[in-house]
Amino acid sequence: MPNWLLNQMESAFRSKDKYQIKLLNQCWFFYRKRFTADKYT
Q: Pfam families per the record (predicted)?
């Protein structure tokens, strides 16, 4: 997981910001899907 995303996720969990947690979670899965798709093509 990239550091910028990890820092944002930690901040969202500390502040208990459910909207930001959901948004960052979606961002992570999009990033991971894109990265693994590019890696194997």
A: spore_CmpA (PF26301)
Domain ranges of the chain: 3-38
Predicted confidence (pLDDT) per residue in 21-34, tens digit: 999 999 999 888 88
Nearest CA to 21 out of 8, 31, 32 is that of 8
Return the structure tokens found at 9.
């996720």
The HSE-up count of residue 19 (CA atoms within 13 Å, CB side) is 0
The whole-model pTM stands at 0.70
Which letter, b or e, does each residue of 4-23 get, where b requires 16 or more Cβ atoms within 10 Å of its Cβ?
eeeebbeebeeeeeeeebee
